[in-house]
Amino acid sequence: MTYCLAISVNKGLVFASDSRTNAGVDYVTTYSKMHTFVWPDERICVLLTAGNLATSQAVLNNIRTDLEKPNAKMNIRKGQHLYEVAHYIGQLSQKEQRQHADAMEKSTNGGSEASFILGGQIAGQPSEIFLIYPQGNYISASPETPYLQIGENKYGKPILDRIITPTTSIEDAARCALVSVESTIRSNISVGPPIELAMYTSDTIQEPYHLKLTLNSPMYKSMQKQWNEGLRKACDRLPRFEWESTSQE
Question: One GO BP annotation here (predicted)?
Answer without folding.
Answer: proteolysis involved in protein catabolic process
